[in-house]
Amino acid sequence: MIVFENVGLRYGLGPEVLRDLTFRIDGHSFQFLTGPSGAGKTSLLRLLFLSLRPTRGLITMFDEDAATLSKDGRATLRRRIGIVFQDFRLLDHMTTYENVALPLRVLGREEATYRAEVVELLHWVGLGERIDAFPPILSGGEKQRAAIARAVIARPQLLLADEPTGNVDPNLGQRLLRLFIELNKSGTSVVIATHDIALMDEYDARRLVLHEGRLHVYD
């Protein structure tokens, strides 16, 4: 599904923050992305989401050369990717329901075909009573859950999650991780960036470890 070959990334004229990344993410795979603060996890997720272009190297996504894609081509590929940002990026003028339903609207589906699905997912992540609430009045944990629901609702081919359990209690964190696992079982490749070693130790999953800008893969 995704292949990185000798990829490097720098911001401006600064030193490379990611160096010589060569790895692949297969379809239907599940992996944790970890490493110390400042190692480049968020930068790598942004490369995977096509919101950054590499300084050098080759990235192939869904059989497309990411470097040669037009703006519209990149936007089309991103519709196949779900992402949970650390800052949530919910739209304040939309209700929780409308935020979560947005990917389905972008795909052109009629509301009658997805309303029950969105409501069910919101109840599952504990936001059943917040369906009509707007993001400014949600707590950090509620925003996190809404962002996760929005990322998974369209069953993307690739799910990227940046510290998705960082603002919730351990029990809810486990529940959310089970949601990612079930999504993976249905065919979605999953990449979860986390510092939580205890959480990773509970699951037999591949680890992508960033250290000083380089990636080490442990299958």
Poorly predicted runs? none
Overall, the morphology is globular
Q: Overall mean pLDDT score? A: 93
Which percent range describes the beta-strand content? Answer: 25-35%
Order of helices and strands: EEEHEEHEHHHEHEHEE
Helix content: 25-40%
In terms of topology, how is this protein built?
Elements: E1 2-10, E2 16-25, E3 30-34, H1 41-48, E4 56-61, E5 64-65, H2 71-78, E6 81-84, H3 96-106, H4 115-124, H5 140-152, E7 158-162, H6 170-185, E8 189-193, H7 197-201, E9 206-211, E10 214-218
Parallel strand pairs: 3-8, 3-9, 6-7, 7-8
Antiparallel strand pairs: 1-2, 1-4, 4-5, 9-10
Describe the protein's architecture and organization.
By secondary structure, this protein is α/β, with parallel strands linked by helices. It has helices spanning 41-48, 71-78, 96-106, 115-124, 140-152, 170-185, 197-201; strands spanning 2-10, 16-25, 30-34, 56-61, 64-65, 81-84, 158-162, 189-193, 206-211, 214-218. The strands form 2 sheets. The chain has a 6-stranded mixed β-sheet, sandwiched between helices. Strands 2-1-4-5 form a 4-stranded antiparallel β-sheet, covered by helices on one side. It is globular and about 45 Å long. The chain starts with a strand and ends with a strand.
